[in-house]
Design brief:
Blueprint (H helix, E strand, L loop, with lengths): L2 H16 L19 H15 L5 H6 L3 H12 L1
Helix pairs in contact: 1-2, 1-4
């Protein structure tokens, strides 16, 4: 899977979980996005783990604080 394809899937999954559209290069930060609640955070983690067949560590789950860190962490798992 190429990087741009992975990023598109991450943003699509993120948008579905948050129930609002986000752009590919849009920077979304957890503390500033009202839709990104603790429950949505868990839903996002589960959705991404299922979509990419990966498992985040507890430390990674805590560090997922922006859309860019989500993309970077998923990318690291796919290498």
């Amino acid at each position: 899977m190429i990087q741009s394809e992975m990023e598109s899937i991450v943003v699509e999954t993120f948008s579905l979980v948050m129930k609002q559209p986000f752009g590919l290069n849009e920077e979304v930060v957890r503390g500033r996005e009202s839709a990104w609640t603790s429950l949505k955070h868990i839903e996002l983690i589960l959705a991404l783990e299922e979509k990419f067949d990966i498992r985040f560590t507890e430390d990674e789950m805590v560090e997922l604080k922006s859309l860019s860190t989500v993309k970077a962490t998923v990318s690291k798992h796919l290498l």
